[in-house]
Design a protein that fits this description.
The protein contains 22 helices and 17 strands. The chain has 580 residues and is of the alpha/beta class. The protein folds into 3 domains: 123 residues, Phosphohistidine domain (Glucose Oxidase, domain 1); 110 residues, Orthogonal Bundle (Enzyme I, Chain A, domain 2), CATH 1.10.274; 316 residues, TIM Barrel. The chain has an 8-stranded parallel barrel with strand order 10-11-12-13-14-15-16-17, surrounded by 4 helices. A 5-stranded mixed β-sheet has the order 2-7-6-5-4, with helices on one face. The protein has a 4-stranded antiparallel β-sheet with strand order 1-9-8-3, covered by helices on one side. Helix 6 links the parallel strand 5 and strand 6. Helix 1 runs antiparallel to helix 3. The protein is globular and about 90 Å long. The two termini are 21 Å apart. The mean pLDDT is 91. Bound molecules: phosphoenolpyruvate and magnesium ion. The site of phosphoenolpyruvate (PEP) has 11 residues, from strand 11 and helix 17.
Length: 580
Amino acid sequence: MKKLTGISASPGIAIGKPFLYIHEQPTVPRYDISDSEIDSEMDRFRAAVERASCELTDIREQSAGQVDADQLAIIDAHQLMAKDPEFENQILRRLTDDLMNVEWMLHTHEQELLDKLNKADSEALRERSSDLHDVTGRVLNQLLQRERFSLADLTEEVIVIAHDLMPSDAIVMNKDYVKGIAMDGGGPTSHTAILARSFEIPSVLGLTTVTRAVIDSDLIIVDGNHGVILIDPDAETCARYEQQITEWHQREVQLMRLNDLPAETKDGKLIALKANIEVPEEVDAVLSHGADGVGLYRSEFLFMSPGRLPSEEEQYRAYRSVIEAMPDKPVTIRTLDVGGDKVIPQLDGWEERNPILGWRAIRFCLSNRDVFRTQLRALLRAGRHGRLEIMFPMISGLEEMTEAFDFLAEVKKELKGEGVDVPNDLPIGIMIEVPSAAMVADVLARRSHFFSVGTNDLIQYTLAVDRGNERIAYLYEPFHPAVLRMLRLVIDSAHDTGIPVAMCGEMAGDPVATVLLLGLGLDEYSMSAGSIPEVKRIIRSTSVREAEEVVGAAMEMRSFKEVDRFIRRLMEERFGVSIG
Ligand code: PEP
Ligand code: MG
């Protein structure tokens, strides 16, 4: 039996067969050919180019009307590159000179060109390298007849083992068959971790070597409560874990008894506990865990299915289905937050050196008005079916917020002009997840109806720690005094102006943080549905006065270690929170 320790990303225990999910770079075959084989190699090359070109035509047809002219131009440029007679001539020349198979010739041709492009002085030329890679990769895949396995096609229960599962892989995976996840990479607030929690799949990330360690193993235990993986456990260990699974379920059943009770402190303060969702299908879990609404619907996951962007009608139907499934309860839908680790293949026409600090979220939407307009139209139309609230991600200051609010007003006017019934009093809020927004929260609070603190990003940007990087995960510290001071500033600024503050980052669902956040004055917590009952239990067993005393003590401390130690001990001893 082997044991690996990583980062606990989603609680619970799973026992099962490992399934190694690795996208390897294709191994390009290399062999000699004779003169007489040049023609047949060229035939294979032309057929592969033809199939790659058909693929591009399909993508273009599916994207028309969904993406802007610049993005269509990229697809057109790829078509031209693939069918360029000079490209064909160069491959023929190489085949004739080197007498090696066409896959290898294509590969070396690409490598040489990439080398030249990357050394070019002109930025425009350097930028061509991703286009070149895309086109040659497409032709190479056709030559190798390579198809990627999708986790949607699983047919039996497994523990998925991956180097770095992308959120777009996780969103399509067959949730009935994925019992657990173990990954080499990833941090606790990476989007794969967030999805795993939403789908209640026990997961351990940041294991560094799990893909190597599980080779040839038959059984694996994922202990998401303690961030541990056991490979080929003995019978006694299995029995112990089976027992823990039974106890875990019993505890869940007990906690679910709180579903119909309010999250009210002992001194009578009512707190709203809402759920975060990524796909409309999660609404059932939201309702069954007694949520007071949806505090964050991450709309970008609607854009991640392969193929094309969702149309206005598709988006309208998805938003409406969530809003209608929550009668009388508010549903906060966040506009498209593309970028960072959330790659949307149909929109991902750009390469960035530093995507986390790059063209993300509201920045992307404000410069892609067609995509943004389509979404806002769908949202505004869906708004009349219930209690919708709209929220903009990654706002960094007043100008950006004003631009987003003004554009929403413009789209609203446009819809009204078309005779569409649009609600007049939709609450519009912003996420506070960029430190600059936190620092000017007093200014932003004057126009926003509410704030929702995105601690996943706020912590990442405040502490300069990539939230998805397992090597520096030890520095990703929600209880850092800098974070606590920032939270206090945001909450106080909002309250001074009379607007409420929600939190939808993962910190809101961490039971260790519940009392601290209550003491800071947070009005609303939004989290994976499965975390609601435990957070509710804690809120019901404390008072605002006690929570404020805890905050008073924590604010005196100078380092995150000090706060962390203090708060964990308190939550374990006083509130029975199990510390992993
Ligand atoms: C956050 O940053 O805290 C947040 C809720 O948004 P996301 O995790 O989707 O970036
Ligand atoms: Mg965020």
